[in-house]
Amino acid sequence: MVRVLLIDDDALVRAGLRIILSSADDVEVVGEADDGAAAVAAVRERRPDVVLMDIRMAQMDGIAATTALRRLHPAPQVIVLTTFQADEHVIGALRAGASGFLVKDTPPLDIINAVRLVAAGEAIISPSATRTLLAHFGDSGAVSRRDAAAVRLAALSDRELEVATAIASGASNAEVATQLFMSEATVKAHVSRLLVKLELNNRVQIAILVHDAST
To answer: How far apart are CA 167 and CA 92, in angstroms?
Structure first.
């Protein structure tokens, strides 16, 4: 059972998400909060696996709240909700450790599947959206980020670098397994080692690091 916490300052949005998620047998909505400031306390109390959080809220926005949540132990996975496909707020949340984002008009079944994927350690950004976002990441400070990223990636084995590069293309674990002729379990093990070795929170940040090294 995937435990989900809803964070949004719009009660109607929270109600709609609760209805959608409650229709899935393997997903349980364990609580709600109406601003980012309440998110940390709610996570400590409810212990969700996944937090669905609005990116723009009055008292504490989704970026600051994501940063705070990812510092918790254990830390939940975070999906940010946005009105737009990719803007500076989404980019900030991904850098803070969010596992991906959903636009608020995402179809109900896709929302449920996104929660399942993130709970399983996947990212929820399509290859096309990945390209758009990474283009935004390259807009400023590219040289300093490139040098820092290259140093970090130099510590990887050839196989680990292949997995990281495949992740950066937007490939799922199953797709990486097919591309690199390995089992999905082996891919998951590589991803876990990459996160530890690179001191990152999720596969989205792996993609960002690989992109930074190539800009």
So the answer is: 20
Residues 108 and 140 in one domain: no
Kindly state the percentage of the chain with pLDDT values over 90: 42
CATH number of the domain within which 87 lies: 3.40.50.2300
| Span 42-78, pLDDT tens digits | 999 999 999 999 888 877 888 888 999 988 988 999 9
Domain shared by 82 and 107, yes or no: yes
Question: Is 129 inside any structural domain?
Answer: no
Residue pair 84/103 in contact by the 8 Å Cβ criterion: yes
Same domain flag for 186 and 149: yes
Domain end (from 124, 151, 170): 124
Instruction: Write the DSSP string, 189-200.
Output: HHHHHHHHHHT-
Q: Which domain holds residue 163?
A: 135-214
Q: pLDDT tens-digit profile of 75-128?
A: 999 998 887 665 677 778 888 888 888 888 889 999 999 999 899 888 776 555
9's tokens: 């300052």
